[in-house]
Design brief:
single chain, binds alpha-D-glucopyranose, nine-stranded mixed β-sheet, Rossmann fold, 21 helices
Length: about 550
């Protein structure tokens, strides 16, 4: 029997419903946790496409009437078991019977209000599963810790459930008028305050998640630090600073069953670190033919696979695209998004036949071939909470050129010509020519210094991007907030040598990191049973959000 039981709630979960990286994370992390000492399950809305595709596997568990203000609405609960993990689905055709996941902003607010209430109503009922951790993800589930408090804990229900709120992207916050949301969620007046869920005279789901959860995580240590600053804080930096004691950053992994060039059925030729030159050359030729690019093995093939939105640094790319093409780079872009970027990229591609291709599409097969075929992966993001594409590209021997932000900074080590270290290239400022020059430098090494290039490619391919390490950090965090110890691991730990200072005070040196930047604080710690104080501290602080935030909040 596993003691720690976690229910993940999310609006997207791979392979059932995906728009972005959120789906990949909530699709893979619980599966990895289940391999170990955690019973992790997932709940998401039953969107129309899931109903059609998985109709034979969906098992009906029960139904309830869920309150939304003056209305009582049907909610059905279904389940599917996949990859050793149980996935629950909330059914209501009025809200979820759409082809797309997100429909229209105001309606989405209502749809996810319903979803959050239904999940809490089903928790422990029909599921035959009472979690001790509710793990919420992004604004669509941000109100749940507060609702848990207002409608359940206050009345003696689910009192042992601790909450984790993971921020995958702070930019999207779920903001709507107080009157409308209060009515749908039956929120008592005492919760409608600036120090809790109100920001700029509206209800902010993201803020409520930060204030009311026992622990807040984000998807890389650097992003955890960045979001406390004015530039990256999206107006919530002061709230995050106020709660810095419970904020930490845990890097995402990638699904190594899906993304492995040695076993990938979607690419023209499989390869590994020893055979990558032959394998990648075959994939490159195949992609050049498929997209009617000039079949030229020596041209640096630079690709980008992304949602086409400003966050991804497309303005920088557009500014120097002509210069890149002039320099002899071949460019392939895959993705959909903002019509402005779709059109601008398609226009440049039309002017440069044989050199550039803009695939305004969502095509997983093509994406895999691009990861395998390319020489360079471009990711000039303005901000990037974690980013998964740079990890996939490194696993496929494609060298990333990234801006030094968020998870990109944490995972891409820029090539250092003096030490020979590095698995990619990076630039610091939001400056198109800085991006261009670094990319040109990479191309020069690719063309003229094959031995150096080989080293960089291999450094990327050797990296461990699996979920194993991160899952261990999440497990440590669950243990910290619930006070439930994790079973001892059998492997013999390597002795840690404490560095001696000039005075030889090894003890002091060893203790120091625990008090360092809050962003890296609790995640990696695995507390023992003798330290339940951590739990009490965490839950107490979170359950009683500070009353002194008003002044600070004005700055948000
Ligand atoms: C969001 C972020 C991305 C992150 C992903 C998964 O899509 O923009 O950086 O990798 O969530 O956490």
């Amino acid at each position: 029997m596993k003691d720690i039981k976690v229910l993940f709630a999310s609006s997207e979960v791979s392979p059932f419903a995906k728009v972005g990286g959120l789906a990949d994370v909530v699709g893979a992390l619980p599966v990895e946790l289940n391999k170990d000492d955690i019973d992790a399950r997932v709940i998401l809305p039953l969107y129309r496409k899931i109903k059609i595709k998985y109709q034979d596997e969906l098992q009906f568990l029960g139904w309830k009437m869920v309150h939304m203000g003056w209305r009582s609405l049907y909610a059905g609960l279904f389940q599917i078991e996949k990859n050793g993990t149980i996935f629950y689905f909330v059914d209501n055709e009025y809200y979820f019977n759409f082809d797309q996941l997100y429909v229209e902003y105001v309606f989405d607010i209502e749809r996810y209000c319903f979803f959050q209430r239904a999940v809490l109503d089903f928790m422990g009922d029909f599921m035959n599963f009472e979690p001790n951790v509710l793990h919420c993800n992004d604004w669509q589930t941000g109100m749940m810790p507060m609702l848990l408090d207002a409608h359940f804990k206050k009345h003696g229900y689910h009192t042992n459930v601790q909450t984790v709120f993971t921020i995958h992207n702070l930019k999207y916050q779920g903001v709507h008028s107080i009157d409308v949301v209060r009515e749908m969620l039956d929120l008592p007046d005492e919760y409608l305050r600036d120090e809790f869920c109100i920001k700029d005279r509206a209800i902010n789901f993201m803020k409520a998640g930060i204030v009311y959860s026992n622990s807040v995580t984000t998807v890389s240590p650097t992003y955890a630090y960045e979001i406390m600053t004015d530039y990256y804080g999206e107006g919530l930096n002061y709230t995050l600073q106020r709660y810095a004691f419970k904020v930490s950053g845990i890097l995402n992994g990638i699904n190594d069953l899906e993304y492995n060039p040695e076993t990938d059925e979607k690419i023209p030729m499989k390869y590994n670190i020893k055979t990558y030159k032959k394998g990648k050359a075959a994939c490159k030729k195949s992609l050049q033919e498929q997209l009617s690019l000039e079949v030229n093995p020596g041209a640096p093939l630079c690709v980008m696979i992304s949602r086409l939105v400003d966050q991804k640094g497309l303005d920088l790319l557009l500014y120097v695209l002509d210069e890149m093409l002039y320099d002899g780079m071949q460019i392939v872009i895959l993705g959909t998004g903002d019509p402005y970027y779709e059109r601008a990229l398609a226009d440049t591609a039309a002017r440069n036949p044989g050199k550039m291709c803009a695939c305004i599409d969502f095509d997983s097969g093509l994406a895999h071939t691009m990861y395998a075929a390319a020489d360079i992966f471009l990711m000039p993001s303005l901000f990037e909470p974690c980013g998964l594409s740079q990890l996939v590209s490194m696993a496929y021997g494609t060298v990333p050129v990234v801006r030094e932000t968020g998870g990109l900074k944490d995972t891409v080590i820029p090539y250092n010509e003096f030490t020979g270290e590095g698995n990619g290239f990076s630039f610091a400022n939001i400056n198109a020519h800085e991006f261009l020059f670094v990319t040109k430098y990479a191309c020069d090494l690719y063309r003229n210094h094959k031995d150096v290039w080989d080293k960089i490619v291999k450094a990327g391919m050797k990296g461990d991007y699996s979920w194993k390490k991160s899952a261990g950090e999440y497990a440590g965090l669950y243990s910290l907030i619930t006070g439930i110890p994790l079973p001892e691991k059998k492997e013999t730990p390597k002795p840690v040598e404490a560095p001696l200072s000039a005075e030889g005070d090894a003890e002091v040196k060893k203790e120091a990191p625990a008090k360092k930047a809050p962003a890296k604080k609790p995640a990696a710690k695995k507390p023992t049973a003798k330290k339940p104080t951590a739990k009490k501290a965490a839950s107490k602080k979170a359950a009683a959000p500070a009353k002194t935030e008003k002044a600070e909040d004005k700055k948000d």
